[in-house]
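Title: Prediction job returns without error message
Component: structure pipeline
Severity: low
Priority: P3
Assignee: unassigned

Description:
Job completed but the reporter wants confirmation the result is attached to the right record. Sequence as submitted:
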Amino acid sequence: MKRYNFFRPLIILLVAFATNNLAKLICAAFGATQETAESVGVIAMVLAALFAYTRMNRNRPKR
């Protein structure tokens, strides 16, 4: 674990959590039901986490 970066997973989790909350807030503001807002939040969270992961690995140097 000499070269393990602890901030990469934390950033991915933070982006996913923030996206989930933001998507739920926007859905609730538009009058969606709680179940619909949670479903949209989870989908947005997964997409944001995948996007953040691919963006971080794209700039990572090859070993």
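Comment from assignee: result matches the submitted record. The CA atoms of residues 4 and 10 lie 12 Å apart.
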